[in-house]
Structures
1.
Amino acid sequence: MTRLLCLVALLLVALAPPAAAHVVKAGADLRIAQTIAGSELTLVIKATTRVPGPLRVEVIGFPTAPGLSLRLRSMADGRVVQGTVAPGRPAQLGVEETGPHELTVSAGGESAVLPFRVLVDRGSGWEFLIYGGLFVAGLLLVGGLLTGAFNRRGRPAFVVTAVAAAGVAVAALVVVLEPWLPAGAPDGAEPRPTDSAIGRPYVQRVVTTVPARPAVGEEFVTRVELFDGSTGRPVDDLTIHHEAMAHLVVTSEDGRYFRHVHPLRTAPGCLEVRLRADRPGRYLAYVELERTDSGGQLLTGSFTVTGPGKSTSESNATSDVADQAAAAPGGTVTVTPAVPQAGRPATVEVSTSGTTRPWLGMAGHLIVRSQDGQFLGHVHEMGTPGSRLRFTFSFPAPGRYLAWTQYATDRGITTVPFTVEVPR
Ligand SMILES: [Cu+2]
């Protein structure tokens, strides 16, 4: 009996997964895509393990990124540290405290102010039970085995081994149940909002440009101002989703112009990005974002570019996009079935030129707009990076769609445009 219990206890110890298996958000890197100084880059604020200590910041460029100057400010005591970061040259900024900080990122006369929290995992209280239980069990097991070896009657050994087995059982139970047990908040975490049960109102937006009527060929600022639907105050609680605070897609009416960019937070509730349009006419803007406790949202807006040339509404969308596709550096697009049905999943496959690398957390992106601009869809390639991207997309209704697939390689971000006709 004693031997059987020992065997069971040993098996439990051997089979229990390591306590580190649980996911601690405090230990995760924060990745934020930014379009700055004409470059697309991802800023990586590495997870901190101790405070005071170094905060590591890296930058990934698509394909390259300018050198960025960094300014880290603690919101608790106002302490400021500065540094620079470039691809392959990470920055180390000293942090004294956990809690709210602001990282100002500047390059080419542009700046973004990124609020974030320095979090350090305290470890969950449950770990104490796991390691405590295993420790006690280990001690008693050894004791039990020794007592069993020197005591022929075996009763004390039985008791000791039974207690050891109970210790192991408690530890194993906590290991198994840990994903469902409440975890302690990390150091520096935001206090739980009291209104989280009902959620926050959707964001209202105003999309404007500076100047108000940009001219063809000239750089202008696209500004997205976000307001709370009920208080009218600026919305400054966006959560990072798909590695960005907001994803902005700007297309000309005919689809010939397409930009997928990640605006800079220039002030609370204010996002800005610099663009340059190549033809006059109407442009449509779509903003994908997610507000804390409010879910994802798609906001739309439009603006007009003035100047000489063929207007964005005069050209034939299909032929222009086809010309553009022919000129694209890589990618043969295959849609299956060749004539997709409305409301039924279709498969879009794109052959890539070069090995893809993850961008915005995915191997590839497919963005689909109805010709009239009333609909915008966005799906991801979820597979592993390779030479072929595959998307599943359901066109919502009959009509003509303008579509763009995007992926990143070492040479930069490739956009492959194509059109799809969905019959009645
Ligand atoms: Cu994006």
Note: Helices lie at 2-15, 126-150, 155-177, 317-327.
2.
Amino acid sequence: MDRFDVVVVGAGVSGLACAAALAAAGTDVLVAEARGRTGGRLLSVPTGNWSEGGRLDLGATWFWPHETLVAGETAQLAIRTFDQHTAGNALFEASDADGAPLVQRIDGNPIDVAAGRFGDGAQSLTDSLAGLLPAGSLRLGTAVSAIRRTGDAVLVRAGTADVAAEQVVVAVPPALAAATIDITPALPEPLLRLARATPTWMADTVKVVARYRRPFWRERGLAGAAVSHAGPLREIHDMSGSGGEPAALFGFAIAATPGSPDPALGESARRQLARLFGPEAGDPLELHVHDWSAEPFTRPPGRDAGAGHHLFGHPAYRQPALDGRLHWAGTETATHHAGHIEGALRAAARAATAVLSRRDLTRTAP
Ligand SMILES: Cc1cc2nc3c(=O)[nH]c(=O)nc-3n(C[C@H](O)[C@H](O)[C@H](O)COP(=O)(O)OP(=O)(O)OC[C@H]3O[C@@H](n4cnc5c(N)ncnc54)[C@H](O)[C@@H]3O)c2cc1C
């Protein structure tokens, strides 16, 4: 059986940042990732015509000022960043008394805030973090189904193999871990209840991305930003790359039936974009409809409560479980910026520190 100092469950930004910190400190680490790719809720896909360059974000898009760990990582990893386009007027869409949509142009842009973007998509962050890991320390397509404390080790069922470790870091949303990973001995009931009740950020969101030949809305003095009460997209933003290339708009919808993507959503989003930004917007070069609620390695099975965000960063997530051998990472466990990439990085740093301090303790124990 393979043995590691630490097994990290999940190769999202939190798991990878934690593993990279542990590897840099000389720890023998394995990252087990269920999907066939790294990144988790960071997902940047090549545009239809790859020769035009640029990737489109179907998961996270932005980071914000004061998010110091994102700033630090992008600088250290030499990841190109640029400012979100905000110039121009915003749009507001309501429904009239008969339910027909009404579009109103707003002077200025009260919708977008100052934010940063990743030059080659948000997933470039996890691509770079994965690149810091020693060869052989990342296993893709390897879902962890069980974690068992035995004697002085933890046995982790990773795909079809058991691997042994001194410690394990669970860097998947807590509700997903509680629903899909069999942990023995069982976690204390209050901790299990907490994990089940902690919502998974954006897990019921559908992101719609439309790519165009050029950011034509900017020529009409529009910012590409809209808020709509007529739907299906509730908010829309310019998601063009640096210098407007690739040109793109994106919008968020809420999954009507979580877990079952709506086949009509793309068409109704296209019609809405045309209502707001003109006929050209209804005819994108490509349209992506990514329903995160149908992703089994993001959204826990059953109904996501939606409420319960006050449980983010609960103090219990800072207490290692399984006699100090199981640590929580993942953005939902962060005390600050939970839900954001910044929160995922903060949780990773906290988990890495906890792992290393336990290793120091056990090494110096008489
Ligand atoms: C549509 C959308 C838009 C967003 N926009 C923004 C934004 O603009 N800015 C921002 O800061 N944040 C945004 N977020 C949130 C941001 O994406 C997350 O905060 C961040 O990616 C979370 O990282 P994580 O590593 O904690 O979790 P995840 O990215 O969920 O990573 C968990 C990983 O664990 C894996 N996994 C799950 N179960 C198992 C298992 N049993 N065994 C092994 N592996 C497993 C998953 O496949 C995944 O790779 C957005 C999210 C979504 C969905």
Note: The chain has two domains: 1-43+122-202+298-366, 87-119+204-294.
